[in-house]
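Protein details
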Amino acid sequence: MELIRNKLLPFKTVTLDDLDKVKLMNRSDSKFCMHITQLPHILEALYTNYSILEINGKSIFNYDNTYFDTPDNQMYLSHQNGKRNRFKIRIRNYVESNLSFLEIKFKNNKGRTIKERIKKQDFITEFTSNENIFLKKSCPYTGNELEPKINSFFKRFTLVNDQYTERVTFDIFPGFSNHEKKITLNNLVILEIKQDKSIDTSRIIKIIQSEKICRNGFSKYCIGRSLLEDNIKKNNFKPLLLSLKKHYFN
């Protein structure tokens, strides 16, 4: 962890207000999995073209999430079965600031991710009347038919390019838990590039290609449940699950 912190020191810094220029609530996402030993070299190649989000002198932040689904797992199965136009619903807590949001992510049939969210008073799994109205307006699921399925947690730092056209998040030490089990992938880094539109010539895309890091669809909700639960359908996730177990488990 100290090595990662040291590698982040040379970056220029930006504030949350700066990051508002690149909110990207309607965006194209690209996710990549890499081993944590690859991270220092990747960061060294980004110093001159990217800045890092810093808040109160900190640049690495803790995230806690609770994901919801229907009792018959409609959202999970939509993803597992390759269905387009699918939803994810979660509560996200920004640990350091103790801010929580109820978030709805919609992936449409053109591969775009559209996110809506409202502030939540507490990081709890019950929905208020206002939150139920938000759910009814923004997705086909009501609060009464949703139940918490898993928790996910990770540490994140965020880079933004100098043109403010892309945001890059690095999630380190990702983990998942339910009422029976807890798993942490200490060797895994989930890199996500968020762009208004695909920019194949961006600096980080070129670096990733040169390092032969392959793009992976990585849903924390779906992969977390696949890792934690033995009796859930996971055929389409098996290649990624095998790779995770081979390369990223301690």
Q: What stands out?
A: Residues 45 and 207 are 7 Å apart (CA to CA). The mean pLDDT is 90.
